[in-house]
Amino acid sequence: MKHTKILTLLALIIGSSLFIQSCSKDDDNGDQNNTNPEFVADDNTFTDFMTWQLEATNQGPDPALGMAHAGNDSTVTLVYFKDGQDPANGKYPVGTIIVKHSSNPDQSVNEFTAMVKRGNNFAPSGGDWEWFMLNPDGSIATDGDGNPMRGANLMGGMCISCHTQASNKDYVFSK
Fold this sequence. Notes:
Elements: H1 2-33, E1 53-59, E2 76-81, E3 97-103, E4 110-117, E5 129-134, E6 150-151, H2 158-163
Antiparallel strand pairs: 1-2, 2-3, 3-4, 4-5, 5-6
């Protein structure tokens, strides 16, 4: 009888220890899940963007953007969203990828730009979007020194200065 009580007490202690330990692991994982997520784009991020969902087709200049994206009367702009991403509660989720292709018939304009919702307070004053210049194959373009053309202030802040006009739509004009 005495051994049964000791074994029962020992089982309760071991069981309680395992329960407490498993709860603390859940709490640790929960803390990791509560950190701000971040999506960092690379050359593979934009692969095959022309097969993504086409969300907008515009021709000619956009009065809100002036000459941004080389908008002139013959310029056609195609806007692709990877996985047709939509905003949730007015904000796009981290990892949202948008590519814009602007071109005209004489090919004097053939520009590929992108924006990615990077998150993790990458650029809080710009909705945490990162801006890109792309090559036609979707790889990230480089400047004359070989530096990737990407960042929160790409083109001297020109991207965010225009997209601020759409801050009420999480900096996105197309949806």
